[in-house]
C-alpha cells in the first residue's frame, strides 16, 4: 500500500465524524464545510481514523476491512492498546491512502466520496488522546507533502506539519455544564487551552461560543472567528408538496401532518428533556410529542420519564382498543424522513440548557415550522425574533407556550413566516462569504 501524500494545493479536513454510522452535529458541520470549500474552488482531502490496521499488501482487503463491522480486538491489538495508554504516541503518525476501488457500496463510502483523497490513521482518536494525556502535546501527522491548510472540525490534539493548522471549537458544554456530560473535564480543559495557545486560528459557530472561549482561555479576539453554520437542505426534499409529506409521515410513523409536536436531539442532560416532558404533560395538549434522537448519555432518569405509564392512553379504532402514547421516542430516523418529520410538525420544541449553535432550530425555521426554544446560550442569537423564547428552567412558562402553539393558528403562521426569513441569514451563500474571508486571512 502506498504512503499517503497530501496534495500541495489541497485543504485537509479532519473529518472522522463522517465515518460514524449515525449522523452527528460535527458530521453535518464537516459535510457542509467540505461543500463550501469545493464551491470556493478548493480541492479537499480528508483525515480520518480507522478501527483497525491495514493489510499493506492487499489494498482491496484494506478497503473492505475499513468498512467492516466493529469486532472485538484480538490479543495483539489488546496488547498494543495497553502499551499505547502507558507510553502515548511519541512518534509521528504516517497515514495511509484509503483505497477507493468502488468495490464497497452503501452510505458509509458515499459520505467520503467528495474528497479527492482520504488519509487514514489507524486508531486515530485513541492515538491522539493517549499522546496528549501522556505528553501534553498533539499527535503529529506526517505527510510526504504538506497541504495548503489543515482544518480540524472538532477540538483534536493533532498537528499537521508545514502548514497552518486551524481548529473548530463548537462550544464549551463540558466545562460550562460539567454535570451534563461524561467527558474527562481535566483533559478537555487542557486541550482547549492548548489549542487556543498553539493553533494558527480558532473557528467557532456562534458569537456566544466565541465570547465563552475568549473568557476561558484569554485568546486574542483576532485569533478566533465565528463563521456560524448554514442550513443546507436538498431541493428534492424542500420542493415536495405538503400532501406528499403528509402521506409519508402517516405511512412511516402513523402521524398526521401538523398533528404532533417534535423534539430533535440526543437524549442527554443538556437537552432538558425531563422538564420538557413535564411541561408538555402540564400543557394538556392532546397531540403527541415525538422525540427523535439517539440514546446519548447520563439519561436513565429521562428515559424512565419518557416511558412512564402516565403517557400511555387507549383509543377505540376500527372496533379495536389500541394503545396510544402521548410521548413517543424514535431512536433513529433517516435524514430524508427527519426533514419530513420537522416539516410536518405543529412546532419544534427545543428548550436546551446550552448549545453552541442549535442546528435543529435553524432547520425547522428554514422549513417553516414554528419553534419554541431557550433564551440562553447561543439560541437567542440564532433564533432572533423568529421563535418563542422561554426560560428552560421554567416548566410553567414552557407549558403556557406549548398551549399557545397548540391552539393559536395565527401565532403558528407568524412564527413560520418569521422563521423562513430568519433562516436566510444562515444561507449557504452567506456561509460561503464567511468561510472564504476566513481562509483568505489564514492562507492569503
Task: Tell me what the structure shows.
- Helices cover 41% and strands 17% of the residues.
- Helix 14 (359-366) links the parallel strand 16 and strand 17 (371-374).
- The protein is globular.
- The strands form four sheets. Strands 3-4-2-1-6-8-9-10 form an eight-stranded mixed sheet.
- It contains 18 helices and 18 strands.
- Residues 1-5 have low confidence and may be disordered.
- By secondary structure, it is of the alpha/beta class.
- The protein has two domains: 10-230 and 428-443, 3-Layer(aba) Sandwich (Rossmann fold), CATH 3.40.50; 235-426, 3-Layer(aba) Sandwich (Rossmann fold).
- Helix 10 crosses helix 13 and helix 11 packs across helix 16.
Which fold name is given in CATH as the topology of the largest domain? Answer: Rossmann fold
Gross morphology: globular
Average pLDDT, rounded to a whole number, is 88
Please count the helical segments.
18
Percentage of residues assigned to helices:
40-55%
Strand order of the largest sheet: 3-4-2-1-6-8-9-10
Radius of gyration from the CA trace? 23 Å
Poorly predicted regions are: 1-5
CATH superfamily of the largest domain: Glycogen Phosphorylase B
Q: How big a fraction of the residues is strand?
A: 15-25%
Q: What number of domains?
A: 2
Give the helix/strand class: alpha/beta
Q: In the CATH hierarchy, what is the architecture of the largest domain at level 2?
A: 3-Layer(aba) Sandwich
Strands, total number? 18
Give the CATH level 1 class of the largest domain: Alpha Beta
The CA-CA distance between the termini, in Å, is: 35 Å
Largest sheet: 8 strands, mixed
Amino acid at each position: 500500500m502506498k504512503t499517503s501524500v497530501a496534495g500541495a494545493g489541497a485543504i485537509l479536513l479532519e473529518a472522522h465524524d463522517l465515518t460514524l454510522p449515525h449522523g452527528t452535529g460535527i458530521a453535518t458541520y464537516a459535510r457542509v464545510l467540505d461543500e463550501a470549500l469545493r464551491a470556493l474552488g478548493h480541492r479537499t482531502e480528508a483525515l480520518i481514523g480507522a478501527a483497525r490496521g491495514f493489510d499493506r499488501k492487499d489494498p482491496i482487503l484494506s478497503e473492505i476491512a475499513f468498512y467492516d463491522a466493529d469486532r472485538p480486538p484480538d490479543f495483539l491489538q489488546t496488547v498494543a492498546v495497553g502499551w499505547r495508554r502507558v507510553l502515548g504516541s511519541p512518534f509521528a503518525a504516517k497515514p495511509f491512502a484509503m483505497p477507493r476501488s468502488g468495490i464497497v457500496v452503501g452510505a458509509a463510502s458515499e459520505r467520503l466520496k467528495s474528497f479527492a483523497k482520504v488519509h487514514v490513521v489507524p486508531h486515530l482518536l485513541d492515538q491522539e488522546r493517549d499522546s496528549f494525556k501522556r505528553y501534553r502535546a498533539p499527535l503529529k501527522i506526517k505527510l510526504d507533502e504538506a497541504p495548503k491548510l489543515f482544518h480540524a472540525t472538532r477540538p483534536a490534539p493533532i498537528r499537521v506539519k508545514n502548514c497552518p493548522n486551524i481548529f473548530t471549537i463548537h462550544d464549551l458544554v463540558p466545562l460550562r455544564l460539567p454535570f451534563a456530560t461524561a467527558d474527562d473535564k481535566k483533559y478537555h480543559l487542557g486541550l482547549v487551552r492548548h489549542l487556543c495557545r498553539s493553533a494558527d486560528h480558532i473557528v467557532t459557530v456562534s458569537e456566544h461560543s466565541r465570547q465563552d472561549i475568549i473568557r476561558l482561555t484569554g485568546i486574542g479576539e483576532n485569533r478566533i472567528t465565528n463563521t456560524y453554520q448554514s442550513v443546507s437542505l436538498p431541493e428534492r426534499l424542500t420542493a415536495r408538496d405538503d400532501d406528499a409529506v403528509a402521506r409519508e409521515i402517516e405511512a412511516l410513523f402513523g402521524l398526521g401532518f401538523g398533528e404532533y409536536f417534535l423534539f430533535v436531539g440526543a437524549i442527554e442532560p443538556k437537552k432538558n428533556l425531563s422538564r420538557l416532558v413535564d411541561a408538555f404533560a402540564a400543557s394538556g395538549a392532546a397531540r403527541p410529542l415525538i422525540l427523535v434522537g439517539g440514546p446519548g448519555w447520563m439519561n436513565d432518569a429521562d428515559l424512565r420519564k419518557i416511558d412512564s405509564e402516565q403517557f400511555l392512553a387507549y383509543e377505540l379504532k376500527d372496533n379495536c382498543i389500541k394503545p396510544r402514547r402521548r410521548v413517543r421516542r424514535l431512536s433513529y430516523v433517516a435524514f430524508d424522513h427527519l426533514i419530513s418529520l420537522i416539516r410536518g410538525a405543529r412546532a419544534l420544541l427545543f428548550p436546551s440548557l446550552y448549545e453552541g449553535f442549535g442546528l435543529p432550530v435553524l432547520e425547522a425555521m428554514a422549513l417553516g415550522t414554528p419553534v419554541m426554544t431557550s433564551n440562553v446560550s447561543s439560541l437567542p442569537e440564532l433564533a432572533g425574533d423568529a421563535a418563542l423564547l422561554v426560560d428552560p428552567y421554567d416548566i410553567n412558562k414552557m407549558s403556557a407556550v406549548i398551549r399557545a402553539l397548540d391552539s393559536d393558528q395565527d401565532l403558528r403562521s407568524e412564527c413560520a413566516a418569521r422563521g423562513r426569513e430568519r433562516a436566510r441569514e444562515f444561507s449557504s451563500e452567506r456561509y460561503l462569504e464567511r468561510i472564504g474571508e476566513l481562509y483568505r486571512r489564514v492562507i492569503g
